[in-house]
Structures
1.
Amino acid sequence: MAIRKIYQVGDDTLRQVSKPVTEFDDKLSALMDDMIDTLIYADGAGLAAPQVGVLKRIFVATFDGGSTIVEAVNPVIVKAKGKRVAAEGCLSVPNIHDKVERPRHVVVHAYDRHGNPIELKGDGFAAACFCHEIDHLDGVLFTDKTVKK
Ligand SMILES: [Zn+2]
């Protein structure tokens, strides 16, 4: 396990579209352990693989002060309901917190690190977090979606 370097805005890596994971092997597990370590070390809510320079469709997130850790491989939003505007930040975009409109509720289909299908349900903050992280996998940053008011 190791802390990885978090790529910062301006780096072209953050603007690439990530590829789906096809091998659920020890290398994937090691990467996800590193992502969780890095997320906790950086005191963030979520971290997507491109943020550590790996263009694969993976994110990790932590809620409830670190007591809940969510990991998702090849995540897809299958249901989105409602609207909520709230301030967001990003470990790759230092010192900016701006308002973004996201669905209030989302359902995400994904896989765990072993390749088992999982379903994640997010409300409010968690919904925004899942959307924010999945955007990273498509090269989108929250600053692209800031609500101008
Ligand atoms: Zn982010």
Note: The chain has a mean pLDDT of 96.
2.
Amino acid sequence: MEDLEQLQDRFHSMKPNEDYHDEAGARRACLLALQALREGSYGVGAVIVDADNTILAEGYNRVFSNGFHTARHAEMEALDELERNCPYISDRSSLKLLVTLEPCPMCFSRSLMSGIGEVRFLCADPDGGMANRCGHLPPTWRNLAQLQQQRVAHCSEPLKCLARDLAQANLPQLRQQLMLHIRG
Ligand SMILES: [Zn+2]
């Protein structure tokens, strides 16, 4: 596994590919994921953009930043910021949550409650992701999920690979840290 510096170098050596609609937001999300790793948390970053791809809110995983915070996933941080800064947006169907890793059940459920129109992820998470498992939601949630689109982000392949590697970075150490916090 590459260390943080190598992942950082990889990011900075990539040229933005403007052929892809989500490229700019995806790059920002990867940069945020790097910051999460720098702070000793999971390498996941998220942005929320409007129909013009303007970033309205952003966040990164801060579960182990200065303590232990179970809810501070990247998507939760971005949604908190959106609700704080943009309470005036009443129609959220044109908003898009762009995240480096497929959202977990907690974050995906909140994205449904928030009314965000679309969730896009750079990298699927077969072990922990919920966006690809909409069919397993309780009926009420399944109905909500029909109001939202879920798909893989429209960005360049190297960026998707980087997002996957960011999500996998330091996993054994992070698992150890989690067990220390929940089982002592
Ligand atoms: Zn989550």
Note: Residues 73, 75, 103-104, 106-107 surround zinc ion (CB under 6 Å).
